[in-house]
Amino acid sequence: MLPCARYVNAILARDASFVALAGITLMVGFSFDPALACTVGATVAILFAVLLICRSYTMTEQRFRRSEAWRALTPEERPAGDHGRHLARATMQELMLRFAKNAAALAIVLYATALVTDVTAPRAHDTFVANDTSVAHDTFVTAALPGTTLE
Predict the structure, then answer these.
(1) Collapsed DSSP state (helix, strand, coil) of residue 103
(2) Is-contact 138 128, C-beta < 8 A?
(3) How far is the CA of 125 from the CAs of 19, 32, 122, 129, in angstroms?
(4) Gyration radius (Cα) of the chain, Å
(5) Residue 129 phi, psi (nearest 5)
(6) Element (H or E) spanning 67, and its range?
(7) Segment 77-114, tens digit of pLDDT
């Protein structure tokens, strides 16, 4: 593996861990509604994937030479010549797209979890337990539609 690829991999893993920390923090904040928490986490993951795709497609030779991965390398570790720089930039783009693909896969899983959680969760407004003492404690009473009466 190229030394540049190792640095890019470490930098992208660091970025992904910060995004994961932010996403998990938001999901814990919305933990009162599991479907909403999963949707928020999936949205964070998909935004990270879109950001990585945009960064990958806008990566020019000049931007690559100004990147953190290129500056972290010593001049001896840097690929020599135009072909070496082109190969290192292509490697960086490939790794960005790989991380974007994994983030999108995580978003799909979280959106699917949100859907399943939302469909299977009981609704508080569907039924409620009557608080009246004349009704048994385990009896459920359904709400009447406006204009109708309960008999």
Answers:
(1) helix
(2) no
(3) 35, 16, 9, 11
(4) 26
(5) -90, 130
(6) none
(7) 777 888 878 888 888 899 999 999 999 999 999 999 99
